[in-house]
Write a structure and sequence with these properties.
Layout lengths: L9 E2 L3 E4 L6 H8 L2 H4 L9 H11 L10 E8 L5 E11 L4 E8 L8 H17 L3 E7 L3 H9 L3 E12 L2 E11 L8
Parallel strand pairs: 5-6
Antiparallel strand pairs: 1-2, 2-3, 3-4, 4-5, 6-8, 7-8
């Protein structure tokens, strides 16, 4: 089974969720260059060519097969500022499962943008794409992301202890999930 992209852009009261464009590179590079952002991604910020390749991949939303990802820039409607990104990755076409992710520039934290954007991607994932279950994997120390998942009504299904290691430190991971029938926006 092939999953199809929803009609883009997606819109909320304050945001436009759209494919990245060349003009977005500087904003993308700014938050992707931060070690405090990447600490929760268990990797180091990409540099030079790697960052450019990653950005070019983010410009091509794809849901055609397992592992494919739809990454969308989150733009504030009032001024066109790129705040971060949301993504939906095909975890399994056979099981109709997707993985939700979001990365935001910390300069824009605390205004509800991540919750608003992720909520719209959840809605589209269930209503337009047809996922049965969408989950998010979150570093247990990433309290902001945990709050976003809980605000969206995702339930904590797992707590994996010391399941990953980055820069000499072990980290725990939570898995949050929601079924289509549980999503308030798609009910």
């Amino acid at each position: 089974m092939t999953l199809s992209l929803p009609s883009l852009p997606l819109r909320t009261a304050r945001l436009i969720l759209r494919p990245f464009e060349d003009r977005d590179y500087d904003a993308y590079a700014a938050y992707h260059g931060r070690s405090d952002v990447y600490r929760f991604l268990y990797s180091f910020p990409p540099e030079a060519d790697e960052l450019r390749q990653q950005f070019e991949g983010a410009q091509q939303p794809d849901l055609s097969k397992d592992g494919a990802t739809m990454t969308l820039a989150v733009e504030r409607s009032q001024d066109g500022c790129v705040l971060g990104e949301v993504l939906l990755k095909v975890a399994s076409t056979a099981a109709l499962q997707g993985e939700l992710g979001y990365i935001f520039d910390p300069a824009h934290a605390g205004a509800g943008y991540a919750t608003e954007a992720a909520g719209e991607v959840l809605r589209a994932g269930f209503e337009n794409i047809g996922f049965h279950r969408i989950f998010a994997r979150i570093d247990a120390q990433n309290h902001g992301s945990v709050k976003v998942a809980e605000r969206l009504g995702l339930r904590r299904e797992a707590h994996f202890r010391q399941n990953d290691r980055h820069d000499g430190r072990w980290g725990d991971e939570f898995v949050y999930a929601l079924l289509a029938e549980e999503c308030p926006a798609s009910g």
